[in-house]
Design goal:
- Helix content is 36%, strand content 8%.
- By secondary structure, it is mainly alpha-helical.
- The chain has one domain (2-151): Bacterial extracellular solute-binding protein, family 7 (D-Maltodextrin-Binding Protein, domain 2, 3-Layer(aba) Sandwich), CATH 3.40.190.170.
- It has a 3-stranded parallel beta sheet with strand order 2-1-3.
């Protein structure tokens, strides 16, 4: 059911953009308003927040103001850990969303925060074209998610006793990560 809603939204976005481009005409009842949620408060210095705002502005510009994106910051529409359910149900249309929060629904998303998997930001961007990511993306789409863009959000590992730089530093260490 939600897959149909996602397809309808995508078709509507394409149709409205084409219509606005071909005719240049705008009718008030043709306007679509989408809800975008995120967990972070408004902060002019936060690149993730600013990326979301820029995306919303570009959608409005490219659609000739036929599509408007209302942004709901700081968990004001839905709590971040429930975002995957809100996206699936249609309570939220778009989200700036760390996929690791969907691990309760898609266990394989644990891979995203595998310690040591990403050594450089470039590694993350290479991963998005890999066969493994394509399999994860298929699971996300089956759950009614579609990735529009990637934003690298830093993560890390810490130790109470010594730095962890290589696998040999791990014996006798207790390790925790954000996932389940």
């Amino acid at each position: 059911m939600h897959g149909l809603r996602l397809k309808r939204i995508a078709r509507s976005l394409l149709a409205l953009s084409a219509f606005a481009t071909m005719t240049g005409a705008a009718f008030a009842d043709d306007t679509i308003t989408l809800k975008m949620a995120r967990q972070w408060p408004d902060d002019p210095n936060d690149y993730v927040v600013q990326t979301g705002k820029k995306f919303a502005q570009q959608v409005e510009e490219k659609s000739g103001s036929k599509i408007h994106v209302n942004i709901f910051p700081a968990d004001s529409l839905v709590k971040s850990l429930n975002m995957h359910m809100a996206l699936k149900s249609g309570t939220v249309d778009l989200a700036i969303y760390p996929y690791i929060y969907a691990v309760g629904a898609i266990l394989q998303m644990n891979l995203i925060l595998l310690p040591g998997l990403w050594k450089m930001p470039e590694d993350v961007y290479k991963f998005r074209t890999s066969g493994v990511w394509k399999e994860l993306e298929a699971k996300l789409e089956a759950y009614c998610f579609k990735t529009f863009c990637w934003i690298q959000i830093s993560g890390g590992m810490a130790s109470k006793s010594k730095p962890i730089n290589v696998p040999a530093d791990l014996p006798q260490q207790k390790v925790r990560a954000r996932a389940r």
